[in-house]
Hints:
Layout: H1 2-8, H2 13-22, H3 39-74, H4 81-95, H5 108-118, H6 120-138, H7 146-174, H8 176-179, H9 183-198, H10 210-215, H11 228-266, H12 286-297, H13 302-308, H14 314-345
Helix pairs in contact: 3-14, 5-7, 6-7, 7-9, 11-12, 11-14, 13-14
Amino acid sequence: xxxxxxxxxxxxxxxxxxxxxDSSEEVDDARTENNRPLIAVIFVTFIFITTFFVMNLFISxxxxxxxxxxxxxxxxxGLSEDQKEWVKIQRYLAEVVVPVIPxxxxxxxxxxxxxxxxxxxxxxxxxxxxxxxxxxxxxxxHGSSETxxxxxxxxxxxxxxxxxxxxxxxxxGYGPTYYFSQQENIFDFVLVVLSIIAIDDRISEYFNVTVxxxxxxxxxxxxxxASKSLQALLxxxxxxxxxIFNVGLxxxxxxxxxxxxxxNLFGEIKEGELGFINSHANxxxxxxxxxxxxxxxxxxxxxxxxxxxxxxGILGYLFWVFFLLISxxxxxxxxxxxxxxxxxxx
Length: 346
């Protein structure tokens, strides 16, 4: 039972399958390579059933329960589907924010600038420069020549100058009031300021400017405007952040509780026989216990750590079975349920 539970988590299941294939029918007989190859059919069938069917049942059950509890919280549990849709529309209407529309200026210079920054041609050029800027950032490598570094530095200066020009044109065309009323413009303006700061290497004497240079990659988010599907996905993540944060806090509480229990159960194990409990993964301190359990919750070598905790007896095995059931099978699906529920509403 425990072995197939390990296999259902897909952690090191090929090793278990090949050991079973090499096993003999008699307990005391030596192992022979490829002695019983048909055993592989059992493992493949088991994984197919558990992974493709049982896991989807987990997801569907958790999503349904999450929807039921959300409906109870919102007070629409006893309403029909049409009534629920009406309530949802009313809530959306209550949250609608009237968009601020830019006004075309009367001054000839500003009017020309306004039409320029509003054009698809200008937006296409900006996106092309963003892609080129990103390319110059990703081709930087260790051991590059001085000529290469100088060339990249020149290109970075050109890109910074272009984005400064873009900000000036938008400020001139839209005006400061409208420009700073839009979040994407504020985001661009902050990136421009940080890029100006990072372009001078003398500032590195006071603090590390590498972070400012890395932030420039965030300009790629502007490419999202070209795809409605990406906009819907980003909006889904944004709307789900509060619920994701709440689920994350609950997950941290679960890790906290199990970490304290693990310190009491496995705190005396300094080195495991299989080597999975070592200086990097152990339960000697609260911090190490938290980190080890968080690692195990991702499925990474959790069963190896479990077998290194065999001195704790049946209680140790039960600890790991329940921990994986809660952290991996349930909580991961709760995250999926939260995002799926918000995605339906986008």
